[in-house]
Amino acid sequence: MVSVTEKILVQHLVEDKLPEAGDEINIRIDQTLTQDATGTMAYLEFEALGIPKVKTELSLSYVDHNMLQTDFKNADDHDYLKSVAAKYGVYYSRPGNGICHQVHLERFAAPGKTLLGSDSHTPTAGGIGSLAIGAGGLDVALAMGGAPFILNMPKIVGVKLTGKLQSWVSAKDVILELLKMLKVKGGVGKVLEYFGPGVETLSVPERATITNMGAELGATSSIFPSDEQTREYLKTQGREDSWKELKADSESDFSEIIELDLSKIEPNVAQPHMPDQVCKVSELEGQKVNQVIVGSCTNSSYRDLMIVALALKGKKVHSDVSFCILPGSRQVYETIARNGALADLISAGARILESACGPCIGMGQAPRSGAITVRTFNRNFKGRCGTQDAGAYLVSPETAAAIALNSVFTDPRKLGQTPAIPVTDLVVDDTMIIEPPSDGSGVEIIRGPNIAPLPELKAVEDEIEKEVLLKTGDNVTTDHIMPAGAKILPLRSNIPAISEYVYVNVDPDFPKRAKEKNGGFIIGGENYGQGSSREHAAIAPLYLGVKAVLVKSFARIHKANLVNWGIVPLEFEDAASYDKIDQGDVLTITNLREGIKNGKVKISNKSKGTEFNAVCDLGDKSKDILLAGGSIMYAKSTG
Ligand code: MIC
Ligand code: SF4
Questions:
Q1: pLDDT (average), residues 414-441
Q2: Is the overall model pTM greater than 0.90, yes or no?
Q3: Which CATH superfamily is domain 268-415 in?
Q4: Which residue, judged by its Cα, is nearest atom 2 of ligand 1?
Q5: Which among 143, 299, 478, 607 has most CB atoms closer than 10 A?
Q6: CATH class, range 4-264
Q7: How far is the CA of 356 from the centre of ligand 1 (A)?
Q8: CATH superfamily of 464-638
Q9: What average pLDDT score do residues 570-582 get?
Q10: Residues 6 or more apart whose Cβ sits within 8 Å of residue 18
Q11: Distance in Å, CA 121 to ligand 2 centroid
Q12: Is 361 in the pocket of ligand 1 (CB under 6 A)?
């Protein structure tokens, strides 16, 4: 036992022996978090479990995504979340208190704890030495009910950091460098554990920027050791008592080691439309930019906003740029308001938005047609910003500041001497977090008219003969499958309504066709379902009748979501079979249940007169869950 990851796992494993990479494992979850866009579904599911109170050490419900209140829907959902939290013993972080990952890092995350969150960027808390994993809402609901979380034992990859970052280069450039090396599926089935002498040069918020974007690598989680930097951070939060030291014993047992010399890293930028399309900022030097936004769970800490404020102090944002700022939490917001940095930002011409996800999830600030928009966020998938033909780029706060001043891509090292970030007392005030009553049984749950029942769930059928409804390529994201944005997100608690938007930006006829054909198959390439944890990318296709998804490979969370909702996840045994299927082909599967149990399914392509095999690569418990028709059906059948 050597790594931090293994040390935490050993303390939380339900099994009594340390598993091999790839084995199905069950881990106890200490803390859970939900956010509003996935939370409404997660709490509806929790209610369906019939458990009177959460069984975790700590569960939190954050409201940060569905913040624009253009009609009653989002506000109704906020009240549902508030009442359901009080009833079941969940802390409720009110709208305006900040982005779940930022607030959780500040106020609750702790070294050595396991955290499961219904958001793919939950590993942000790995910056403080917590083993934090993103999952679908149903998995989080089950964990709140005290069930262990099932996952395949990841490989533990060591990332050895040496050296020290240059001036104007920051943590975002580090993770972009890794994305350039490993690409968006490079972390699948792995935990990235950081170690080495470079670690102590990074503060906890900087580490959290790196672990946050491990999600873009597809990693199960990312984690830093807990050291003096961690203790220092916890002290600023008045939580030093949560500190304990956690470090890897030796580097010899990592399954693989990646070395990164921090001093060699230059300012990086991810180009449209994938976070791994990384080049140096200097390579784009001089190209025109229309919009710059600083914020999101990746880059909105006190440190990040201060560096921007200091870079802009006494200067003006270029007149061709729309420049927005979103402080990651009310703590950050109030601290920069009190120390004057907010005034410097306002004076420079920044548009200040509330502490929330906002433009990161297309909830406002969509750029103009054909715009070049530069953001400190983590995802730049096509159309995610709300404007289909905009080109979205991802950068560090330093680079964002340099571009805002010049309206063209600018290497921030041209900004001159790096300003020192003043050490300020952070404003610690938890009054926007509502503690649940010790007995919530009398609390009445408030339900708006936008809350619709879950779709009908059925055990997996033994024979399926259906059409291929859609054939997609590699790296399809959950934003493709189930888009977000200001118009669609308010429908997250209404599956029939949201299902009308499945795949609309890829093929606007998909929902209509799926219903007309009475359901069918989806064919995909590598890394299918990467990105968000949204289980709506499984539930809404299920509602439209999708029975199985057949791909070259899956992203972890989406595959688990398919199982949880009884859609069969299949992978081509021979990737070449992918080329021999077309949209509209009729596929037949007989003995599907037996095939799932054996892990191998024979499929006939009736239209082409061919046959091929697919693999159903799941652990035994996951197979039982799938066969039952998903986790809810499984929970009912096992009492
Ligand atoms: C995202 O960044 O895509 C989201 C919105 O935070 C999602 C969750 C969701 O779809 O609600 C995520 O990353 O899991
Ligand atoms: Fe919110 Fe964006 Fe972070 Fe998702 S990635 S949690 S939308 S800030």
A1: 96
A2: yes
A3: Aconitase, domain 3 (3.30.499.10)
A4: 532
A5: 299
A6: alpha beta
A7: 13
A8: Aconitase, domain 4 (3.20.19.10)
A9: 98
A10: 1, 6, 9, 10
A11: 7
A12: yes
